[in-house]
Automatic annotation (TrEMBL):
Protein name: S1/P1 nuclease
Gene3D superfamilies for this protein: P1 Nuclease (1.10.575.10)
Keyword terms of this UniProt record: Disulfide bond, Endonuclease, Glycoprotein, Hydrolase, Metal-binding, Nuclease
Organism classification: Bacteria, Pseudomonadati, Pseudomonadota, Gammaproteobacteria, Alteromonadales
Superkingdom of the source species: Bacteria
Alphabetical list of PANTHER family matching this protein: ENDONUCLEASE 4
Amino acid sequence: MTLGQNFLLLLGLLLSSQVLAWGEKGHRTVALIAYQQLNAQTQARVDALLAHKGFADIGDASVWPDKVREQKLPEYAHTGPWHYVNLPRGSNGFDMQRDCSRPCIVSALAQMLEQLSSHSPDAQAEALAFVVHLVGDLHQPLHVSFADDRGGNDRKVMFDEEPVSLHYYWDSLVLKSLPQSDLLAAQLLDALSTEQRQSWLSADVNQWLAESYAITASLYQTNPAVIDPVANQHYQQQAKQRIVQAGLRLASLLNKYLPE
Ligand SMILES: [Zn+2]
């Protein structure tokens, strides 16, 4: 293989890792929205923990839990099921005993919120990254989904004339035509009304999950084989709303749970 081929291969790998899992854009936007909504004291604590762990910013921390999973690091093998929860087909909603008897996103988030108070700065910094990430995942509809097609990973839809998995569409492709995360975060915050902020902040974790599940259930009800531009526009609106909801709610959790 020539140097040029090596370079192209490397470039290809870099580009494909950028579009991996919510994809980076989604997670980073959630994290940036949250960061801007933190009180000064919490923001300083977050900065200190990010620096401790060597994260460049909160966006970097937000994608770290997917990175350690993709790298299949043995010490994080147990965190695989933390990113989602599966419900039985046709179920009315989440049942902690039935759906989270083994670790799921709900128990993982509770555990990581508790770990924010750990005496070890390392454990605290990792808990911070997981909390930032998991609140994002919980708002991605297909992370509250069904086991039989692995949260839409095994379900193909046509988008932009390509067959893609429904899960991947919702993780990444739905946000593809939107600006980069810093600009997107600013736009979403700008468009936010006081009423939306109040009503979204009054919801608890169970409601966040129920909202995701409602979108998932409606996706499977309409069961689209092709996501045309009109459908894409509709899903993009939903995705933007999920991201800003996640960002606001994440800030409120961190303001509450991150000790001085
Ligand atoms: Zn994830």
